[in-house]
Amino acid sequence: MKDLLKRQSLAILSFILPALGMILLYYSQEIYWSSPKTALLGDGFHQYVIFDTALRDILHGKDSLFYSFTTGLGLNFYALSSYYLGSFFSPLVYFFDVKTMPNAVYLFTILKFACIGLSSFISIKGTFKQLKPYLALILSLCYSFMSFTVSQLEIKTWLDVFILVPLILYGLDKLIKQGKVGLYYVSLTVLLIQNYYFGYMLVIFLPLWYLVQLSWDFKRRLSSLTRFSLTSILAGTSSAIMLLPTFLDLRGHGESLTPIDRLLTEDSWYLDIFAKTLVGAFDTTKYGAIPMIYVGLIPLILSLCFFLLKSIRFHVKLSYGLLISFLITSFYLEGLDLFWQGFHAPNMFLHRYSWLFSVLLVFMAATVLERLEELQFKQVLLANLFLACGWGLTWYFSSKHYTYLDSTQFLLTFEFLGAYLLLFWAYKKAKLSPIFYTVAVSFFLIVEIGCNSFFQIQGIAGEWGFASLDSYQRGQTEILALKEQMSEGDYRAELTQVQTGNDTMKHGLNGISQFSSVRNRLTSGTLDVLGYKSSGSNLNLRYQNNTVLMDSLFGIRYLIGKNQPPRLGFTTIATANDYRLEENNWALPLAFLTQEIYEDIELSSLTLDNQRNLLHHLTGLDSPLFEEVPIYENNLKRNLKKDGDTPPQTSFVLQVPANQQLYLSLPNIQFPDDEDSNVQLQIDGNVYTYTLDNTFSFFDLGYFSEAKEVNLKLLFPGATKASYGQPHVYNIPQESLESLFSKLKENQPEVRIEGNKLNIQYQTDKTSSLFVTLPYDKGWKAYQDGKEIPIRQAQTGFMAIDLAKGSNTIQFVFVPQGFYASFWISFISLIAFLLYQRFLKTRAT
Fold first, then answer.
1. Which Pfam families match (predicted)?
2. What is the CATH number of domain 631-734?
């Protein structure tokens, strides 16, 4: 055991040092195991930790890996997992729960950095046989803490990519030099299964990297072309089990390609490469960012020396130079930038392929370090002078083009540059002890990458903010307690106060709200015109911006919230501290029978008109809805300003009829940039707070059982000024709601969810349609009496099945479109690879 530890001591260090580095980085932000501040920020808080919780519930048998009913009316969870959950560590969420999941994120992030260090050490050491192992360790540290990994750590599944990339490149090296294809095939297949997005980028890069590797010995290495091509193709087809269903989902529900409307990328300038290779350079992870390419000064200097070494032939230097030039050109040309990212402009976190530049520098540096004895001081000096000139120009123009840089970054960079140059001079000219040289360089390197990583984590903390544990757990105890009070059955439930668009998934409730890059845009678009706000690319879908009519139509049987006005049709059945559980007496099941064969109606941009027309169409009734209630304003200018300590405010008077649910429409609400967009409504002394990112311009005033005059005060407590358009108050008469939903609830079917199945038992005395309020998806199949029956789209985003008179049972089953075909493609490809590998081994012997 001692001999093993001694032989593998550097490999162990390559694992331990990045782990310790991340522990210290987190600790610099007051983050540790179960600390008051969590490792969650940005999308990590709003998406990833919640999807981890959903996966944990699946692993505990509470849901299906194929389909989840907890968000967006329903969602292809298999497709979601391909983007958000592709990680070696994902199955380990089994051992955590919703309350402790932030600890899982903290632990897994540290372990991922440790694995990045280990895999890169193995790769560099294995690829560069003449390289001293301690130099491979130094380069692995640079790779582990490149700016891209630290600045993007909130998107935790991206980190798994950097575990696999070194192994893929090492596997490719073995394929070219030794004819061994196993490591390359396995690592590339796993990457494509885990992360198709970064897999796409690497699939572009690998042929280019392969051609560069051929340049070292074209005649001998060209014989590997068949191995490279076949193994790459088999890795792609072996990963079809994830790629094909995901592709089909994206084709059906994804966004359109981004048009190329300019030549150059936004905010790019001539000295970007120099600006972002400075120690501590951090601009933003939002819009207007330039590529995150820092990977340490030593790899950068050595990469320049690569072109000065005489032992490296000119055509090899040319090959590497062309590849670097292509990447740099991609940073500047809009078309190439989009090409690397699937012709889809990213929603922040720009230039997502820029890590390839850092990888290239590390491998070029390793090539030079294999020839360390050949490297001359004048060559290092020349590289340093080139960098110093570039950084000097960057300093000169920084006040205009790089305002995020200050003297700190330049001074740190020049200090480390000078230290490395002096140490190399002492090593070459003054015959400094190799041991002392190694220790000194390692010390400065660790300090350098530590400083840069600190600036990166400080930058993302400033932009996104690490969430507190109190914030993450706010309301959890009460919501989970009230969830236990809900009756058994398959229905939907929602929350009136939320922190994220995925809170229903977080708490295991079947809801409507959603925030995800993987979503059903057909359904979100239909829901948007029915009042559930989901504009633009449908990245967000919000429940709160709607009426009790849609609550009932889409099966919202329970509401959990606090400090909310009374709602027509809802009854409070339980409380937990200041949270209330309310039950909707008029909620329909997830599928309901129509009065006749359903035919689509035209929906406009007027959401309340659409709600009225849809309900009238479904019932055949003409009950009055959304008539205006007179409103009297005391400030007709509608431009409000803060007066001393009194926030902008105004008041209205309403003449309310009896038995009415009322809503206030306040269009075009505007605040100064970056000011708090909360809105408070005081209704007869009761204060209700709304956030505009959930309610937008539509506010619930509550249910009024008696006719009376109502005084309404509107406040903007976090703003210095505010303005709005013509206010309107609309009503839903109790009599109208009851007559409409009494009609819809006649002879309604019994609906039961079983994993990825929906069982519906119905009875109808006339021909009609079964209207299913689940998102339309080609993965759904319907069966009756053992035979498949057709499903058609209803209002674009939903499903319908036409029924004859009688009673029966229909079973809906969801399997991602293309899953069975992709399974067999992957299975056959695996067998084909094993046969091919055996053939290669037999031929070699």
1. YfhO
2. 2.60.120.260
- Would the CA dihedral through 350, 352, 354, 358 be positive or negative? positive
Q: What is the pLDDT of residues 283-324, one digit of tens each?
A: 999 999 999 999 999 999 999 999 999 999 999 999 999 999
What is the domain partition of the chain in residue ranges? 255-473, 474-590, 631-734, 744-819
Q: Structure pTM? A: 0.95
pLDDT tens for 363-389 read 999 999 999 999 999 999 999 999 999
pLDDT band for 696, please (50, 70, 90 cuts).
confident
What single-letter DSSP state applies at residue 705? S
Scanning the structure block, which residue is given the tokens 């009851």?
738
Please state, in angstroms and rounded to a whole number, the distance separating the CA atoms of residues 626 and 396: 63
* Alpha-carbon distances of 5 from 1, 9, 11, 13, 137, rounded to whole Å: 6, 5, 9, 11, 16
User: For residue 75, what are the β-bridge partners?
Assistant: 68
- Determine if residue 3 is left, alpha or beta; phi over 0 gives left, psi from -120 to 50 gives alpha, anything else beta: alpha
In which element (H, E) is residue 203 found?
Answer: helix 196-214
User: Which residues, other chains included, contact 222 with Cβ-Cβ below 8 Å and sequence gap of 6+?
Assistant: 214
* Domain 744-819, CATH number (from 3.90.640.90, 3.10.129.10, 3.30.460.10, 2.60.40.1180): 2.60.40.1180
DSSP helix/strand/coil, 597: coil
* Cα–Cα distances in angstroms (integers) from residue 64 to residues 67, 195, 322, 505, in the given order: 5, 21, 48, 13
Q: Where are the alpha helices (DSSP H) in 307-406?
A: 314-332, 334-340, 355-369, 377-401
Secondary element (H or E) of residue 480: helix 476-483
Residue type, 201: M
Give me the residues paired with residue 806 across strands.
764
